[in-house]
Amino acid sequence: MAGRYSIAINGNQVNVALDESLLQQDVEAMLTFNPEDVEHLLRTHSGNQSYWEALSIRLSSRHENFVDVWAKKWWAHSNTYSREVLAAYGEPKPTGPAVQDMAVQIYAADTSETERKKYAAQAHDFAIKKRFAGTFDEYYKVMYKYQMLTPPWYFETVSETASKLKEDADLVKSIASKLHDKSFHLGAYARAFMAKFGNVGPMSVNEAAIMEAAGGYRKS
User: Fold this and answer.
1) DSSP letter string, 96-126
2) Model confidence pLDDT, tens digit, residues 174-215
3) Of 19, 17, 44, whose CA–CA distance to 30 is shortest?
4) Global pTM value
């Protein structure tokens, strides 16, 4: 993982570089503890663990940002026009659930273009009575501005994107948590193994370094 995670601070500006481009990783193998690999793991595990923890934070932040900013903006816009359609149907003070149900109907991926124009025409007629001066085409473009994006943002797009971002964040968080557990077992194993080894003879400089990294060796 060398070079995948770095940080620079310049005054009040913090720049974190986190390379999210990963080839396919064998997570099961990465989380498996092989005693014969203890020396290599003591040199590399901490850095590997910190990378996955940073990636977990980044993905969790991305999910929260989508839910708290972009999904909220989508729903605020959609609910506004949902209320106008309901008002045109004779419901000037609809309940919150009724507003959201109507928003789903208006902005679902399988709503036909004919149905979209019907909803827009009803809402536009109501808006005209409330002193809206724009044309139907102008009203339609604003009402369906999220569906005119590339790719379009339907109700399903917003819901599925939020779910996918959460799933990605939770999966990586689980890996980071398991790597944390592995570091504990690695240290415990190294301390026990090297203490036993030290009882039968002197340690080499390399062996002493491994023992010290595991927290189980101190010079007297």
Assistant:
1) HHHHHHHHHHHH-TT--HHHHHHHHHHHHHH
2) 888 877 766 656 666 666 555 555 544 444 444 444 455 444
3) 44
4) 0.76
Domain coordinates in residue numbering, the chain: 5-213
- In which region does residue 114 sit, left (phi positive, over 0), alpha (psi from -120 to 50) or beta (all else)? alpha
Q: Please tell me the number of Cα atoms within 13 Å of 77 on its side-chain side.
A: 19
- Residue with structure tokens 């240290």? 187
Quick one: which H or E segment has residue 108? Answer: none
HSE-CB at 104 with a 13 A cutoff on CA atoms is 8
The tens digit of pLDDT for each residue in 119-162 reads: 999 999 999 888 788 899 999 999 999 999 999 999 999 999 99
